[in-house]
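Same chain as my last thread, 469 residues:
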Amino acid sequence: MDLPFRLKLKCYGRITELVCTRVLRVLPGKRLVCFGKWNDRQVVAKVFLAAGSAERHCAREERGVSALKDNCIETPPLLCRGVLIPCHTPVLVFQRLVHAQNFAEVWEQEKNGDRCADLLIWVVKVIADQHSSGLKQDDLHLGNFLLSGSIIYTIDGDAVDVRQIGKPLTEAVSLKNLGLFFAQLNPRFDDLIPKVFQAYVEKRRLPVEDALYARLMKEVCIHRRRRKRVYLKKIYRECSAFVCCKDWNRFMVCNRGEYDKAMDRFLSDPDTVIDSSRLLKDGNSSTVALVEIGGQRFVVKRYNIKSMQHALKRCLRSSRASISWRNAHRLDFIGISTPKPIAFLEKRWGIFRTTAYFITEYVQGVDAYHLIHAERGGEIPRQSVVKWFVELLRLFAEATISHGDFKATNFIVSGDELFVIDLDGMHKHRFRWRFRKAFKRDCERLIKNWADLPEVDKMFRDQLQKLKL
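reply #2:
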């Protein structure tokens, strides 16, 4: 939609103008959240769109915000409850905290481990206050908090359960809700949980027991399994995070944040752009190109159809682009770095798939093979790269995932991160014995990369023995 756009808002018996200047979130057919101006004030407007349930959700949001305020938990002030004219769509208008940052964005920018723990402690103390007041956020995650200076604001009153208000939540309910919060974090931050949980326990004046922590971590594992299952279904449909288009000729899913007119034009005719771009690989089964879309650089991998026989073999199976899309999100979920998946596209004829495309962000770096084989050594010590590989293997082993092609050119070193690429052969194993067999092949292929470098070969073998995989 074109911005800004103007809406007529009836509030407290008066008709005023609400100017929406920036769309923050869209839940198709359910809710629109945007920055705007109302009565010369900077505001955040929530427009409830769901037919048949808009009034109920609006009332629940208002009730949740009121409960937070009544229990001295900071939340942005509610300025107006009104309706749009002439459709009578419910709207809530909140004061915009201009200098506040969404806590999820603050978290993403933070790299220092000690600072991360401090940030989590701030939020967990607010959660402890909620639990002490009998309040519980059913959709508890970092994005439902704002940080302004040293003050944490709770947002999204619609998700606040007020049924136990005035009576502190029980240990079981509290741990389940807190487990939901920690489950949102990347597993690599799990070593921060004991310190952060200690702050929660002290705030709630709960007994300091190992059994209590064990119960919390059990809840974290339960919520993570559930979140992963739900999320890996969500990435194939229209929702707040993704744009989806499915018709007779194509099936496309794209990150909503990356979907603009330039991306739409590219996805309508990717071959023209690929053919005029720099090719990173021009193979028979796949073509990889570095393309520019809307002033940004992306990597596009086109999975080619080699022959009629190949077309018949692939037409009813999940495309390799779809598999790569799913695996990229799976890796991100468990904390393994891979170029951010932007979109995937399948050309179709009804239910039959043909050429497919997988689009990712472009990561500036050098592949591990050329980095380690560089005679001058480079700026990154080989020992550091070996340690990154070992940590990567540990995460793959914990998740029972095999990659399928551990050649060193399938790993990009950028800064102090090791990115995994070429994901269409990756597999999540249900049975441990099958995983061990496949993972052993991965490790053997990884060692084979350094056959001409005895010193590096020895470093890898020594580290792999310590892992006892």
